[in-house]
Amino acid sequence: MLKTSHAAHRDLSLPIEQPVTRPDTKAQVVIRPLPAQARFSLRLNEADLEGAQTAAGVTLDIPINTRSGSAERSSIRLGPNEWLLTGPYDDAEVIASQIDAALSGRFYTLVDVSHRNVGITVSGRRAAEVLNSGCPLDLAEAAFPTGMATRTLMGKAEIVLMRLDDTPTYQVECWRSFSTYVRDYLIEAAREFEPSIA
Amino acid sequence: MLLVTCPYCGPRPEIEFRCGGEAHIARPAEPSKLSDKEWAEFLFVRTNAKGVFAERWNHAHGCQRWFNALRDTASDRFIQTYKVGEKRPDRTPGQERL
Ligand SMILES: [Zn+2]
C-alpha cells in the first residue's frame, strides 16, 4: 500500500514494494519510484533575477519550462516567477540557507514542499507513449527534448513532467495524495508494452 | 485537440487552461458613488459577442499565469493571445497571429 497520509514525513518516498519493471534490460518501459528528495517552491519576481542568476548551486536564469542542474541539485522554472528546486533530502536546510544568502534583500518566498511531492521515473523506448496515455503534451524529440520540464496533467492529476536524459528518462512529480492514482495510471498504460507488469 | 498559445509557454493543449470571462473590465474607482444598478452592471452584465471577443484565460495546469485572448466566439478560433497589461490588439477573424 502507498502511504498518502498528510502526516507522512518528507523522508518517505513512494513506498512501492518492488520496482515496477522486469529485471532484464530489454524492458520497453521501466517505472520506478524515486527516493525522498528535498524540494522547494521558490517565488521571485522576474525583475529581481538581476544579480541573482544562480543560487544554491543552480541557475535560476533559465528559459521558462526548462530544467538545469544535475541529478544532485536542479532548478526547474515553472513560470516567469516560479521555480521548483530539488536536492538530496539531507541537504534541505543547507539549500534553504544558501537561497537565503543568495537572495537577501529581495522579496521572495521559499516553501519546503519535500513531503508534498512524490517522484516517479518513466524510462525506456516506449516511455513517451506511456506518458501520452494521460498527458496531452507533444513529447516528440523536437517539442520536448532533454532539459524540458513543465507543469501539466496526467489523467486528472496535475504533475510536473521533466525529461532527464536521452534514454529517454522522464520524471513525473505529483502530489503525494495523487500518487496512487498516477502510479496506477502509468502501470495500466505500461501493460500494453510490458504485459508482465503486475 | 485545440491548442491555446500561452504568452509564456507557447502552444499548449486546451485542457490545461481555464477561461476567466470577459477581459478589460475596469473596477470602478469609487464603488460607493455608484447606484445599485451601475454596480450590478459592473458585477454581472457582460458582452455576449458573436465574433471577436477579448477574454481572460489562466494557464491553470502550466505556468498558472493569467493572460488575455482574442477569440472568435462563432468559430472558437483563437486569434491572438497577449499578456495582461498589454493593449487589446486590433484583429478580425482570419487575422490569426499565433
Ligand atoms: Zn503558460
TrEMBL record, chain A:
SUPFAM superfamilies: Folate-binding domain (SSF103025). Signal peptide: none annotated. Gene3D superfamilies: Heterotetrameric sarcosine oxidase, Probable tRNA modification gtpase trme, domain 1. InterPro entries: SoxG, TrmE/GcvT-like. Pfam families: SoxG (PF04268). This is Sarcosine oxidase subunit gamma.
From TrEMBL, chain B:
Pfam families: SoxD. This is Sarcosine oxidase subunit delta. Gene3D superfamilies: Folate-binding superfamily (3.30.2270.10). GO terms for molecular function: sarcosine oxidase activity. InterPro entries: SoxD, SoxD_sf. One of its GO terms (biological process) is tetrahydrofolate metabolic process. It comes from Microvirga vignae.
